[in-house]
Write a structure and sequence with these properties.
This protein is an alpha+beta fold. The protein folds into two domains: 1-31, no CATH class; 45-103. It has four helices and six strands; from the N terminus they run βαβββββααα. It has helices spanning 10-15, 48-68, 74-91, 93-96; strands spanning 3-4, 22-23, 26-27, 29-30, 33-36, 39-42. The strands form three sheets. A two-stranded parallel sheet has the order 1-4. Strands 2-3 form a two-stranded antiparallel sheet. The protein has a two-stranded antiparallel sheet with strand order 5-6. The longest helix is centred in the middle third of the chain and has 21 residues, at 48-68. It is elongated, with a radius of gyration of 19 Å.
């Protein structure tokens, strides 16, 4: 199912209450957040949903690494970290590199 999202500043979004787009006489669902190529985009371009997504993903992978710690040598732990954990940070690091605290 197709969806639509109105993107803008908080004030502009308040002025425009809703976005009604029709395709074949069917209205598209309005959403506040959309995942595009692994990055969550919020309607006012804040990064809260994406940061929460990354945090939850990292915590689950960190837990798995903690469970495997007793069974792996140091070089295998490092390989696991680089392949399974670091890639999550590296994927969206270019997007989040220039984010200020006020944008979060």
């Amino acid at each position: 199912m197709s969806k639509s999202m109105l993107i803008g500043t908080i004030n502009k979004i308040k002025q425009q209450s809703s976005l009604n787009i029709y395709i074949n006489e069917t209205i598209l669902e309005n959403v506040d957040t959309h995942k595009l190529m692994g990055v969550y985009i919020y309607k006012n371009l804040k990064w809260n949903p994406h940061i929460l997504y990354i945090y939850n993903k990292m915590m689950s992978r960190r837990y798995l690494l903690k469970r495997l710690t007793f069974y792996l040598r140091y070089d295998m732990k490092k390989l696991f970290y680089n392949a399974y954990i670091r890639t999550v940070f590296d994927y969206s690091c270019l997007v989040l590199a220039n984010v200020s605290k006020s944008d979060i």
